[in-house]
Automatic annotation (TrEMBL):
InterPro entries: Acyl_CoA_acyltransferase, GNAT_dom. Residues 3-175 form the N-acetyltransferase domain. It comes from the Bacteria. This is GNAT family N-acetyltransferase.
């Protein structure tokens, strides 16, 4: 397996992200699958991804021509363009002490069958190299134990919690 990690480079690759996202949406999975495999919660549009791509790298992992993972990020400047993230931005602007410059993780996903072998870490590390010195911040549903565990192993630290969309979210940071 020779996996390549790099920024997404074409509209077709952004479309592949949306397809992998669709396969892993919380509402597309059974409760057992969500527990075992984890899930993603936001459904982005191609227009939103293109706007995010214009402001910074959307990292992808390819095994040959197959997309096996992605890490989406956005700057606070895109707050208005991705309204589903407004509740998180509202919490982040009230954080005490104030956050250092940061990049919000819009979503990260590894294809089933490729999980648990380091692709998440590799994507995050490549992204961090490109956006340094920005801190990476994200929120994870407390229901998504697999993601909480993976982010904890990466060194993400909980800085806040919020309730919304029928869930409780841990807000975590990786410096």
């Amino acid at each position: 397996m020779s996996v390549q990690y790099r920024p997404a480079a074409s509209p077709g690759e952004l479309q592949a992200i949306l397809e992998l996202q669709g396969e892993n949406l919380r509402d597309s999975l059974t409760p057992e699958e969500r527990e075992r495999e984890g899930f993603v919660t936001l459904r982005y549009t191609l227009q939103e991804l293109a706007g995010m791509q214009a402001q910074g790298p959307q990292m992808v992992a390819f095994d040959g021509d197959r997309l096996i993972g992605y890490a989406l990020s956005l700057t606070p400047g895109l707050r208005q363009q991705v309204p589903t993230l407004e509740p998180l931005f509202s919490v982040l602007e009230k954080t005490t002490p104030p956050l250092p410059p940061y990049r919000l993780m819009g979503q990260v996903c590894i294809r089933k069958g490729y999980r648990g072998v380091g692709h998440l870490r590799a994507l995050y590390e490549r992204l961090k190299e490109r956006v340094s010195p920005d801190t990476l911040v994200t929120e994870i549903s407390q229901e998504n134990r697999r993601s909480l565990k993976a982010h904890g192993k990466m060194g993400f630290k909980k800085i806040a919690e919020r309730q919304g969309e029928g869930q409780v979210w841990d807000i975590v940071l990786w410096e």
